[in-house]
Amino acid sequence: KFVKRFSQIVAPLTSLTNKDAFNWSKSAHVAFEELKKETCSCPVLAVLDFSRPFELACDASGEGIGAVLMQNQHPIAFGSRKLKEYEKKLSIYDKEMLAIMHALIKFRKYLICGRFVVKTDHNSLRLFLHQKELNDRQQRW
């Protein structure tokens, strides 16, 4: 919630919790050092003001999805997670939509109280609500 790109940073560390043998690799060490650095240099989070609109910036990559809840370009909270194996096979369009859905669910308690704008770098998602045909997954969203 407080560290930007948290799930991407800790991905090598979370894999150490599997049932496989524990192997402290170079990538795990680099992830640990980066997590320490990010934790010490976290941006100052803004205080919520429910009289102002929220901004929800979402993005997806090949490995994870993330979002930041903001007001006036100041972060309030971060949210991210690793993609599951089957989610990694989704199209970039669906990954970006998954990031938005994840963020809407994660920050629902804040967004339900007022106005908000969703920001994404995937322009074709603007047409999502106006599409005539949606696949089953998109219909559930």
Explain the overall architecture.
With 141 residues, this protein is of the alpha+beta class. It has 2 domains: 1-42, no CATH class; 44-140, Ubiquitin-like (UB roll). It is 34% helix and 21% strand. It has 5 helices and 4 strands, in the order ααβββααβα. It has a 4-stranded mixed beta sheet, with helices on both faces. The longest helix has 15 residues, at 26-40. The model has no long low-confidence stretch (mean pLDDT 79).
What is the CATH topology of the largest domain? Ubiquitin-like (UB roll)
* Overall outline: flat
In terms of per-residue confidence, which ranges show pLDDT below 50 for 5 or more consecutive residues? none
CATH class of the largest domain: Alpha Beta
Separation of termini?
23 Å
Largest β-sheet summary: 4 strands, mixed
Percentage of helical residues? 25-40%
Tell me the structural class: alpha+beta
Provide mean pLDDT, rounded: 79
Quickly count the domains.
Answer: 2
Give the ordered list of helices and strands: HHEEEHHEH
Physical arrangement of strands within the biggest beta sheet: 3-2-1-4
Number of helices: 5
Number of strands: 4
- Rg from alpha-carbon coordinates: 17 Å
Second rung of CATH, namely the architecture of the largest domain: Roll
Strand percentage: 15-25%
Pfam families: RT_RNaseH
GO molecular function, one term: endonuclease activity
Protein name: Reverse transcriptase RNase H-like domain-containing protein
Organism: Taxus chinensis
